[in-house]
Amino acid sequence: MTQNAPDTRLNSLAPVFKASGDPLRLEILRVLERDTFGVLELSHIFDMRQSGMSHHLKVLSRAGLLEAQREGNAIFYRRPLHGRDDSTSGAAVRQVFELVDRMPLAKERRDRIDAIRKQRADQSQAFFARHADQFREQQELIAAFDRYAGPVTRLLRDHPDRTGWQRALEIGPGEGAFLDTLSELCTSVTALDNSSDMLSRSEESCRQAGLDNVDFVLGSTDALAPDATTSYDLIVANMVLHHVASPAAILSDSARLLAGGGTLIVSDLCRHDQNWARNACGDLWLGFEPEELTAWAGDAGLDAGETLFIGLRNGFQIQVREFRKPSHTAAQSFLDAHIAQTQQKG
């Protein structure tokens, strides 16, 4: 190498800064802070032609600022998971993300993002409304309830904080099969679902089981979190994330709803390529890499705990994840301020 030759680390920085040296591309990165969108969705958000958006996405992807994620026959774009990338370019990418995330989104952008999320949520709700009577049959096409409910129950009953749990929240309780366990472990339980059909079935299940400490709320975490007057010691989301419009937002909302020292338990599918699950089971996403959940939880200020993987005969794999909210006052204050700021930005 000659004396005037640039350091190879500088060579790795050049594509990152070149690709990010455009205000529109920076705004694309800002929009993709917590969400995953396809080309057509991003074209709608930015009111531009698909060909132009595809060009910008290609430039950002080549520079390592975005990565493509295949969901069946569709391709979505997301920000890469750089949690374990200690390279110079990885540090530069994280710095770019940190800076753009400080910028507020224009109201027009937020409104269009909300419209896409609502469209996805409506799609999921419509599926469950059509198949409410066959919920258990649809569910067992992938995983029977007992395959994940048993391990989750054992994890909760053996949890070191179990005796301190008073209030629990279950996100997406389905027919209410897991509410019996939560009712036993906690003084009060809230069942939250955005499907009135499924919430009615949960309520009927609890009535038949004689559970009198469960409240039922029709809605979603994004509506509950900003004005939360109650914090929860335990939040459970069993096989829910692959049905929701923005899985990362569920973790962020849960962090907001958790009390200091509280626990979030997530069970969901690992990434798979069985596209039939979209039509047969109403899945919006084909599972998740464990690193995705860890990164989203970390962004929300949650610490990763226990991890359990459950293999199924049909080729699917379930991951059971534990995340905890720091209990000390300083960390809690910082987390609440960070999440509040993130929500205000959109």
Keywords, separated by commas or semicolons:
alpha/beta, Rossmann fold, 3-stranded antiparallel sheet, 15 helices, 10 strands, 48% helix, DNA-binding transcription factor activity
Structure description:
This is ArsR family transcriptional regulator. InterPro entries: ArsR-like_HTH, HTH_ArsR_DNA-bd_dom, Methyltransf_11, SAM-dependent_MTases_sf, WH-like_DNA-bd_sf, WH_DNA-bd_sf. Pfam families: HTH_20, Methyltransf_11. GO terms for molecular function: DNA-binding transcription factor activity; S-adenosylmethionine-dependent methyltransferase activity. This protein has 346 residues and is of the alpha/beta class. It has 2 domains: 96 residues, Winged helix-like DNA-binding domain superfamily/Winged helix DNA-binding domain (Arc Repressor Mutant, subunit A); 220 residues, Rossmann fold (3-Layer(aba) Sandwich), CATH 3.40.50. It is 48% helix and 18% strand. It is built from 15 helices and 10 strands. The strands form 2 sheets. It has a 7-stranded mixed beta sheet with strand order 6-5-4-7-8-10-9, with helices on both faces. Helix 1 runs parallel beside helix 5 and helix 12 packs across helix 14. The radius of gyration is 21 Å and the shape is globular. The N and C termini lie far apart (48 Å). The model has no long low-confidence stretch (mean pLDDT 87).
